Amino acid sequence: MTELSSFSLEVDRVCKSFVSGDHRLNVLTDVSLSLCAGDSLAIVGPSGSGKSTLLQIIGTLDRPDSGSVIFENVANDGQSRKVNPFSLEDKQLAELRNQSVGFIFQDHHLLPQLTVLENVLVPCLAFGNSSDANVEHALALIESVGLTDRVDHLPGQLSGGQRERVAIARALVMSPSIILADEPTGNLDRTTAQEMTELMLHLQHSTHSILITVTHSEDLASAMGKQCELVDGKLA
Ligand SMILES: Nc1ncnc2c1ncn2[C@@H]1O[C@H](COP(=O)(O)OP(=O)(O)OP(=O)(O)O)[C@@H](O)[C@H]1O
């Protein structure tokens, strides 16, 4: 496999609206942003301003009405490969998402009947890839988030901060180019939130990925390299 030397993300004039009955709600209007491997960005703004919708579109979980999202890989030999995820068939899109994007949610979305190790491996299983190398990588990530002694525990046996650590390890297990975190510290006390922020930034830095967080926390927002504010669906 070709080793990738850089990755970038271009969001260009994305618009999104939701229709309910005869009412159309314009949620995003001409949102553009550009990020490179190693960048971290906080998206802030009032409740209902479209932050999570934008994150879902960047993560290819939702489609824009117009505008584009482009993932670009530039290999070591200088060859550039640009992909518009929304031009792909559903199966290819799901594969691209699985390989390129890691998600961290406020409520973690861990599977309660699976152990810490099994939860971290879930993204690897999605396309039938449960090799020894994946297990080794998952164990290394579990170690890097400080949960080696909890590897066989169930989520219900963990604290909120520990569950967050599992979610961070799971988001990284496919070595994604983009990590998306929606209110990742929303349910944590301030000290734990700070520890999680440092952990996410440390892992993002060491994997040279792009980290985008949606947050109402000024502490988390100010720890990111860049900030942008959405107001009524437009970048302020
Ligand atoms: N699937 C949907 N169908 C209809 N309306 C939606 C849908 N998803 C989001 N919305 C509406 O779009 C607007 C923006 O929602 P979004 O969740 O993106 O805001 P947000 O800035 O993340 O808010 P918060 O900070 O409260 O989480 C809201 O008015 C919401 O009700």
UniProtKB/TrEMBL annotation:
GO terms for molecular function: ATP binding; ATP hydrolysis activity; transmembrane transporter activity. Residues 9-235 form the ABC transporter domain. Its EC number is 3.6.3.-. SMART domains: AAA. Keywords: ATP-binding, Hydrolase, Lipoprotein, Nucleotide-binding, Transport. One of its GO terms (cellular component) is plasma membrane. PANTHER family: IMPORT ATP-BINDING PROTEIN, LIPOPROTEIN-RELEASING SYSTEM ATP-BINDING PROTEIN LOLD. This is Lipoprotein-releasing system ATP-binding protein LolD. The gene is lolD_2.
